[in-house]
Design goal:
By secondary structure, the chain is of the alpha+beta class. It has 4 domains: 84 residues; 101 residues, Beta-Lactamase, CATH 3.30.450.20; 75 residues, Helix Hairpins (Orthogonal Bundle); 149 residues, Heat Shock Protein 90 (2-Layer Sandwich). 53% of the residues lie in helices and 20% in strands. It has 10 helices and 12 strands. The strands form 3 sheets. It has a 5-stranded antiparallel β-sheet. A 5-stranded mixed β-sheet has the order 7-9-10-12-11, covered by helices on one side. Strands 6-8 form a two-stranded antiparallel sheet. Strand 3 and strand 4 form a beta hairpin. Helix 8 packs antiparallel against helix 10. It starts with a helix and ends with a strand. 21% of the residues are buried.
Length: 424
């Protein structure tokens, strides 16, 4: 009995150990399963979270693409507006370098965009008008300039008047990014202002001249009458007879001036009717050629007419007066050796609704100073001129709704161009 007890105890001990191992294994298995379940749950949640984040990322990408497309659309829209503006626009950054230069700015300044962008404003545009009349003044002082004027000196020596305004460029947080200058070419405006001023001056001069002319005409008649009587009473070989004739000739010249002046100041009445401009010009040219035959200069008249009629509504008599005046002026401008006077009629290539009549000579030409005074009353370069022929011609042309322009250079002749509507 004694030897069996240890065996039994050993068996019992083994049974207890096996049971404990079994329980431990069971617990481990349960723990493993629980851990696995938790990992699976966490993995599933991660998958859900990942899918959610993917969806959100896709939505964000769509919104971003949409935002970028909208930004590009707005940017293109603003760029199109800038490029379509008739006024020049330039923008400088904080260092004064040009970052934007639209198409109108190129046209006004004659500077190509690629030679301007990234370069200093002071170097490209210049500060001839002073720093205080530039976008740099606004950049430095934070003070905008509104409706100011300055002159821009171009590389070719030409100066153009500019009207401009400046302002700061800010971002959404009100931080200053640079400054903008918007400008326009005032050349045409200045020309019109000068023309209006000249018209006011001429109107005042015309009123005064008409009054003076009426007062002069009666004494002139008396002087001419007495000079004629004096000449008649003097012997044919009396040297004083020549002096009396000079008085008569001087009075006649004064009377022509007075008559021209009264004609200029008198309101113009047109008797317009449909005509073929070529026929009107040719009739005046034929009269002019008769006068050329009596002149010693060797002057030829060249014609350039279209094959088809050029119809318009004008007063042919007064328009022929204009043509003859321009032809005679061309004759006086020619050298003693003569030359060619070209007369042309055509439709305006740039504006088919306009008819262009050109009279071009090979004469001495005119300086810019003379051209600027050409249509001023009493200004003349001829010794016996009244200075009213071109002024009266301009008045007749403008009464037809037309325009007269002159192109000339000393030594290279002169070209007068008359433009009138087809249906004046």
């Amino acid at each position: 009995m004694d030897s069996a007890e240890p065996v039994t105890e050993h068996v019992l001990e083994l049974g207890r150990s096996s049971s404990q191992l079994e329980e431990a294994f069971t617990d481990s298995y349960i723990l493993f399963n629980e851990t696995t379940r938790k990992y699976m749950e966490a993995y599933r949640q991660l998958e859900e979270q990942f899918e959610y984040l993917n969806i959100k990322l896709e939505e964000t990408n769509r919104e971003l693409r949409k935002s970028l497309e909208e930004k590009d659309r707005v940017s293109n829209y603003l760029n199109n507006i800038l490029e379509s503006m008739s006024g020049g626009v330039l923008v400088v950054d904080l260092e004064g370098n040009i970052t934007l230069f639209n198409q109108a700015a190129e046209g006004i300044t004659g500077l190509p965009q690629q030679e301007v962008l990234g370069h200093p404003y002071a170097q490209v545009i210049g500060l001839d008008a002073g720093r205080e009349l530039s976008v740099l003044h606004t950049l430095e002082s934070y003070q905008s300039l509104t409706n100011r004027e300055k002159n821009l000196q171009l590389d070719n020596g030409r100066t153009i008047p500019l009207g401009f305004s400046t302002a700061l460029v800010r971002d959404a947080e009100n931080n200053v990014l640079g400054a903008v200058e918007v400008f326009n070419d005032l050349t045409e405006v200045k020309r019109l202002e000068a023309q209006v001023q000249r018209m006011h001056t001429l109107a005042a001069l015309g009123e005064m001249a008409a009054t003076v002319a009426h007062e002069i005409r009666n004494p002139l008649g008396g002087i001419a009458g007495f000079a004629t009587l004096l000449e008649r009473d003097l012997a044919a070989d009396d040297p004083r007879r020549r002096l009396a004739r000079k008085i008569t000739e001087g009075v006649a010249r004064l009377n022509r001036i007075v008559s021209s002046l009264l004609s200029y100041t008198r309101p113009l009445t047109l008797n317009t009717r449909p005509v073929n401009m070529v026929e009107v010009v040719e009739e005046a040219a034929a009269f002019f050629e008769i006068d050329l035959e009596r002149r010693p200069e060797n002057i030829a008249l060249q014609r350039d007419y279209p094959d088809l009629p050029v119809d318009c509504a004008i007063d042919p008599e007064q328009f022929q007066q204009v043509i003859l005046n321009l032809l005679h002026n061309a004759t006086h401008a020619m050298s003693p050796g003569g030359g060619t006077i070209a007369v042309g009629v055509a439709s305006d290539r740039d504006n088919p609704a306009q008819i262009q009549l050109t009279i071009r000579d090979q004469g001495m030409g005119m300086s810019l100073e003379v051209q600027q005074k050409l249509f001023t009353p009493f200004f003349t370069t001829k010794e016996d001129g009244t200075g009213l022929g071109l002024v009266t011609s301009k008045k007749i042309i403008e009464a037809h709704g037309g325009l007269i322009q002159v192109e000339s250079q000393p030594g290279q002749g002169t070209c007068f161009t008359i433009s009138i509507p087809h249906n004046s």
